[in-house]
Amino acid sequence: MAEESPEIIVDQDWKARVQREKAEAQARQQGEAQPSEEEAAAPPAEAASFMTLVSSLAAQTMFALGVIAPRGTQEVVIDLDEAKYSIDLLMILRDKTKGNLTPQESGRLTATIAELQQVYVARVQQMHESALEGGPIHPRDLKQP
Questions:
Q1: Rounded-to-integer distance, Cα 16 and Cα 136, Å
Q2: pTM: predicted TM-score of the whole model, two decimal places
Q3: CA 138 → CA 53, 65, 125, distances in Å?
Q4: What are 9-12's contacts with CB under 8 Å, separation 24+?
Q5: C-alpha pair distances (Å), 1 with each of 9, 17, 32, 122, 140
Q6: CB 15, CB 39: distance < 8 Å
Q7: How deeply is 5 buried, as exposed, middle or buried, from its count of CB atoms within 10 A (0-12, 13-18, 19+)?
Q8: Which of 32, 66, 85, 87: disulfide with 27, CB 3.0–4.6 Å?
């Protein structure tokens, strides 16, 4: 089996949001009252913060599931308890914010939870199969879900 490098997804949209926020702050300092159409259409800063939180918890879960290897190493450590805890946190976040999210935020959160749950179930099955075979699990043997 050929080694595949883990796929890392980076949200580049935050840079554009930061630039818009800086422009808005400068406009307020200069006394401009009307934001541009692009600024008015931009999601509020709270949306960016919320999605950053979701992305952070998702990345933490992917590390715990061994999907993403720590930088500078080819070895992964699977911590199913940590992964379950992180998924549970996301589910609590979904439940506590119900009705207060935009449809995009709600959809992204639900999709993230579903994807992480699928990977979690696949890892649990792999761990059980390995335990039945009586051997240790090596990162190179892990199937990418």
A1: 45
A2: 0.60
A3: 31, 13, 15
A4: 11/51, 11/52, 11/55
A5: 24, 41, 60, 18, 8
A6: no
A7: exposed
A8: 32
Cα separation, 72 vs 41, whole angstroms: 40
Instruction: In whole angstroms, give the CA distance from residue 28 to residue 26.
Output: 5
Indicate the burial class of 98 (C-beta count within 10 angstroms; 0-12, 13-18, 19 or more). Answer: exposed
- pLDDT-derived band at 108 (thresholds 50, 70, 90) equals very high
- 104-111 contacts at long range (C-beta below 8 A, 24 or more positions apart): 104/47, 105/47, 105/50, 105/51, 108/51, 108/54, 109/54
For residue 26, pLDDT over 60 is answered with yes
CA atoms within 13 A on the CB side of 27: 12
3-class DSSP state of 11? coil
Interior CA angle at 31 toward 29 and 37, to 5°? 100
Most confident of 10-14, 27-31, 40-44: 27-31
